[in-house]
Design goal:
Strand content: 25-35%
Oligomer: single chain
Distance between the termini: 43 Å
Number of domains: 1
Largest sheet: 4 strands, mixed
Order of helices and strands: EEEHEEEH
Number of strands: 6
Structural class: alpha+beta
Strand order of the largest sheet: 4-5-1-6
């Protein structure tokens, strides 16, 4: 994954996607003071129209991304890649337990 600067532009209801809280929140002074000020992803205000944050993202291309729909961004961030290890059983004495 790549570190990407997310420029979270507030929608008409002054909402943005917050990666720290994994939810859509109001981009107001209370949220900024209570959460952004202590968040390692916080990069500052998006020129007064939202909040900039930097986190690892599976999207490729640019090192910055403008987010205009916080709900669409929330849905995207619910998809997690899961890797399962492949286990090779090479011990000839290994037997599966029958639980019938």
């Amino acid at each position: 994954m790549t570190m990407i600067n997310h420029i979270n532009m507030a929608n008409e209801d002054n909402e943005i996607y917050c990666c720290l809280r994994n939810k859509v929140v109001r981009a107001d002074a209370e949220h900024t003071q209570k959460f952004c000020s202590r968040c390692k992803m916080y990069q500052g205000n998006a020129q007064g129209g939202g909040i900039e944050c930097r986190w690892e993202d599976s999207r490729i291309g640019s090192d910055w991304l403008v987010i205009t729909d916080p709900f669409e961004e929330w849905v995207f961030n619910q998809k997690k890649k899961v890797s399962l290890p492949i286990i090779a059983i090479t011990d000839p004495g290994f037997h599966f337990l029958d639980v019938n």
